[in-house]
User: Fold this.
Amino acid sequence: MKTGKFITFEGIDGAGKSTHLAWLESFLRGKGIEVVVTREPGGTPLGENIRALLLDGRESMHPETEALLMFASRREHVERVILPALERGQWVISDRFTDASYAYQGGGRGLSFERINDLERWTLQNFQPDLTVYFDVSVETGRQRVNTIKTADRFEREKDEFFSRVRSAYLDQVRRFPQRIRLIDSNQPLEKVKESLHDIISTFC
Ligand code: TYD
Assistant:
């Protein structure tokens, strides 16, 4: 029986997830909740190796290979990290989960919804987060906020049209799961976004 809560953060690159994730972690800890913070692709030793392959800008990859690697990493992550933590009563916050595959591999790369849905059912039996916070920003704002110091990874190198398709696929997911996914307008200043996140979390805990 799972007892902890599973929260995921989503958004296009540059949406500001990392900053808000750090805030949420300390907010929950302050309430005495034990929290495990993790990310995708990655989150396990094998998953982190898969992540390195996926983000390596020198590798080109078929979109289906990309989707399979995302779900291979996710399968390990759920089995070895997420479910065990939830069963111990801990809360898990993951920087991205399956919605990112619908957005990036579906919207961005053009794989069909059915393909991703098949993989989701096969590998996860439709295991879903309890809450997903989707940080919605315009492609332009996301682009401005992406860290320009580090070298762009294989996704960050994509053109604006790619990120518009990713964003609209995320918005489709928001419409598909109005109960689970909460959208925050992240074009607003950081403080405002934090307030919205605080409101969502306060009604949830
Ligand atoms: P990201 O959290 O943006 O890493 P960082 O903040 O360190 O750059 O995630 C890495 C990339 O992986 C991101 O561009 C989106 C992509 N991604 C997918 O394409 N599909 C997925 O299912 C997941 C989880 C991530």
Q: What stands out?
A: Residues 63-87 form the longest helix (25 residues). The mean pLDDT is 95. Residues 13, 40-41, 70, 95-96, 100-101, 104-105, 153, 155 surround thymidine-5'-diphosphate (CB under 6 Å).
